[in-house]
Specification:
- The protein is α/β, with parallel strands linked by helices.
- It has a domain at 41-144: Rossmann fold, CATH 3.40.50.1100.
- It is 38% helix and 20% strand.
- It contains nine helices and eight strands.
- The protein has helices at 16-21, 40-54, 69-81, 99-106, 116-120, 122-133, 147-153, 175-183, 201-205, and strands at residues 10-13, 25-28, 59-64, 84-90, 110-114, 137-140, 166-171, 189-194.
- Helix 3 links the parallel strand 3 (59-64) and strand 4.
- The structure holds pyridoxal-5'-phosphate.
- Residues 39-40, 69-70, 143, 145, 170-177, 195 line the site of pyridoxal-5'-phosphate.
Length: 209
């Protein structure tokens, strides 16, 4: 991808509460890595874009809800990489685009809405997509959550140049958490915070506990 090789800075958060406990708290500012492909999204897309190009595909297709940051990030990344983008959006088209979808559209993404029923049935959805958009598309799953997405997320910790014991991350699909987990040293631990509503979905998905 033609994004600069940006190393996100570590920002220390000062508060007496951390001093009392003897904890040093830092935020890894991955949100600064690109104005529109921010945070973990750049890491998840990096190797997928490379793979799409390697396979000679001219279009990226991905899917998500109307507020998916991944949808907007894919649109911006595709534009940078010179690839067309299609976003399969769950649910009905609303007359006013929200800021996420507006940004995606401004970056040239073709938005295509499907019913919640079809969206849920991933096999039927993929058949539908292949029939409609043909074979010259590179499909990135929901949230950029595939092996290459996880591989990219293994690089998140490589920009942390201080020793640390714990690393915390929000979890949607869990791809970011997986990449971080795979890159840690034995003595380091990670804590994932589920951000979606369905209780226990990460544990269920990864069959933990
Ligand atoms: C995408 C996103 C997540 C989820 O990342 P996963 O790799 O799907 O777990 C969490 N927080 C924010 C702010 C995001 O944009």
């Amino acid at each position: 991808m033609h994004t600069p090789n940006f190393i996100p800075p570590l920002q220390q958060i000062f508060d007496p509460i951390w001093d009392e406990k003897g904890i040093k708290l830092y935020v890894l500012r991955t949100d600064l890595n690109h104005p529109e492909i921010s945070g973990n999204k750049l890491y998840k897309l990096k190797y997928n874009l490379e793979e799409a190009k390697k396979q000679g595909k001219n279009t990226l297709l991905t899917l998500g809800g109307a507020f998916s940051n991944h949808i907007a990030a894919t649109a911006a990344a595709g534009k940078l990489a010179g690839l067309n983008t299609i976003g399969i959006i769950r649910g009905d088209e609303l007359s006013d685009l929200n800021p996420t979808l507006k940004l995606a559209k401004e970056n040239g993404m073709q938005l295509h809405y499907v019913s919640r029923e079809l969206y849920r049935d991933k096999e039927a959805l993929m058949n539908y997509v292949r029939t409609k958009f043909g074979e010259n598309i590179y499909v990135i799953p929901e949230g950029g959550s595939n092996t290459l997405g996880v591989k990219g997320c293994m690089e998140i910790t490589s920009s942390i140049h201080i020793p640390f014991d714990f690393i915390c991350t929000p979890c949607g699909t869990g791809a970011t958490l997986s990449g971080i987990l795979m890159s840690l040293k034995d003595e380091q631990q990670t804590i994932g915070f589920q951000v979606l509503k369905a209780e226990g979905y990460i544990k269920k998905k990864y069959k933990i506990g």
